[in-house]
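pasting for ref
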Amino acid sequence: MLGAVLRILFIGNSLTATNDLPGMVEAMARAAGVEVRTAAVVKPNFSLEDHWNDGEARRAIAAGGWSYVVLQQGPSALPESRVLLDEYARRFDREVRRANARPALLMVWPSRDRAGDFDGVSRSYSGAAALVGGQLLPAGDAWRAAWRRDPALALYGPDGFHPSRLGSSLAALVIVERLTGRLPPASAVPGIPAHDVEIILEAARELAAGVP
C-alpha cells in the first residue's frame, strides 16, 4: 500500500448512495494498491443547500481527519441550480479547509430524458470546482466517453436517472484515479461482463489523459 490512509467523506444524495459508491471506491482503491477509508452523509433528494441547512454534513466535516470531502448534488445544469451549486460549494469549502481537508466536486449526469443537459452539467461542476480550487471528479464526462465507444452501454438504472452498477463502477474508477493517481485493474470490477469493464476502463483512462 502507498503511504498513509486516504480518508474521504462523501456528501450527496441517492446518486452517491445507489450501489454504495463510497464502498466501491474503497474496494477499487485497495485493488490499485492504495488504502482508502470512506464515510458518507447521503440523503435522498438533498442538494448542498439542504445539507448545509440540515447540519449533519457540517458536523461530519468538523470531526476532522479527512483527506478529501466529495460534494455532490443533482445535475445542476439550469442557471439557477448552478448559482446554488457555486454558493454552497463556496460555503462548504470554508468548512472543509478549516478541517485541513480538500474539497472535490463529483460531476454527475442528467436523466436520460434530459441528455442534452450533459454539457451544462459539465460546465456547472467544472466551474464550481474551479471556484473553490477543488478537485473535479468528472464522472458525467466519463459516461459520455464510454458511450462514444459503445452507445448501448447500460450506465443508467431502470429509472433512467440513478446509475446502474456499471454506471456507478465508472464513477468509482474516475474518483479513484483522480484522488489516488492510480487506476485499478479489471479484476476490481467484479460481476460485470469483460467487454463492459474494458470500455469503462478505457473511458477512465481517456479522462485521466485529459482527452476532450
